[in-house]
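Notes to self after the call with IL:
- keep both proteins in one doc
- input above output, always
- annotate only the second one for now

Protein 1:
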Amino acid sequence: MLQSISTSVSSSSLLLITSRISSSSASSTSFLSFLKLPRKPLSFPTNTQRTTISTTTPKMNWLGKLGLGFGTNTSMNASSSGASEIAQSPDEDIPSPGQEFAQFGAGCFWGVELAFQRIPGVTKTEVGYSQGFLDNPTYNDICTGTTNHSEVVRVQYDPKECKFDDLLDMFWSRHNPTQLNRQGNDVGTQYRSGIYFYSPEQEKTAKESMERQEKIIGKKIVTEILPAKKFYRAEEYHQQYLAKGGRFGFRQSTEKGCNDPIRCYG
């Protein structure tokens, strides 16, 4: 009787073990088969249009004043976008009735603007960028030295009270026109010397004035005399910078005829 029970139990156990082994083998075979199935390679979406996010915050960059600033370098795409043609088109802004425009580049435009503000007959001054090939440049852009812009002052004056020659006299007195692409510690193409004329009469007067000035100083003048190009008004903090106090908050006089020394950085 006991032997019969033992045989029965052994048979049942053997059957159970056999069943589990069979089930395990089937699962293993099924898993191995899954691994051998041909599967589609993983693919990831690609985007051929990349967006560059600039982390540079435009600010007053003193390295830029030395010609060592870093800008957005957007000028790299200027030619393909047609920006060059726009930037180098004539200045189509219109002065007030009875007034005329003139543009001058003579180094950092802060001190130059204040000098022109003091001339009787000058009714308005603005600082900005011109003669480059990038449309709508920023201060940081022109400080890279890659856009060919010049820091200029656009002067509006009443020809009945102020002659173009008067403006030229101030222009020559405010900088060294024999230095190429620099004025003092300010180095870079944006600081070059230039007279940008709006009429044949201004061009003729400018060239005659430069010839006289060369004889006076006895050196070759590198000032460029070119037609006035599109004027891009500089950022607001640059406008009348020294009159508003400059770097140290000391306002400088804009009174007509004032002869106070001009502190170029305030």
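Protein 2 (the one to annotate):
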Amino acid sequence: MQSLCWTTRLLTRSLRQSLSTLAEPNVKTKPHLVSVVCGFPKDFLRSKYKLGKFGDDSWFKASTSLADVIGVADGVGGWRSYGIDPGDFSAFLMKTCERLVQCANFNPTRPVNLLAYSYCELLEHKKPILGSSTACVLILNRENSTVYSANIGDSGFIVVRKGEIVHRSEEQQHYFNTPFQLSLPPPGHGQNVLSDSPESADTLSFPVKNGDVILVATDGVFDNVPTKLLVETLTDVEGEQDPVKLQMCANSIALMARSLSFDSEFLSPFSINARRNNINAMGGKPDDITVVLATVAID
């Protein structure tokens, strides 16, 4: 009963955060994204509710007359053993990206610039924001109906059209379960910490069509939900512009990811990859979960 109570409370928090995005003003210049958010922290007993965060994961959405921009970041949880909150790093990156979208020099074809400038601000911050994070940012350029993406690490995106994945990000790993990441280690630890440059991000650009479904998510989703199941779920909302129906789909994906992550008998995508690396693994991978779901509307 106590577990059910906490799960209900967690879902209520998540829906409150997700549905709050529906009330945000949305620039209706053609084309545009209709987008919603849902997610869960891995440890909701420890995690505090905060807009833009699910545990160590962070996200943002922003709109201008030039573009719609969405992004996710996943703070590396290992820093907690050093007394560092991993969510601070990812939250700073995403909040700064959101602010930079509104700046006069924002380039709607260069998402890597958002990551680079945000990371630069983090490095120059008066109070050091220590830690590491993966990140994925997508920009829909209204002028040419083209999406520009920058992905560093194992967060990422897929684009579904007519029941098939037509575009997807490439996962960047140094080795199994060790993704590329932006970092700021404590003094004296730099030589022992992986730190990749924003310019090492995998970048793509591709045209989108009316009705395309875009899922941007952290590895808590991709490590636990099989691609086939994701595609089947996303196909149901192709062309959907009702944010409430999109929200229901995002909630479903987030709930699937969380349920499967704690299923010890499930052969998850993470376990399959582990076995390919000669690691005998079974079950899901408990993790923070962030889902940013969008459809392309070209009227």
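Annotation: The two ends are 48 Å apart (CA to CA). The CA atoms of residues 173 and 179 lie 4 Å apart.
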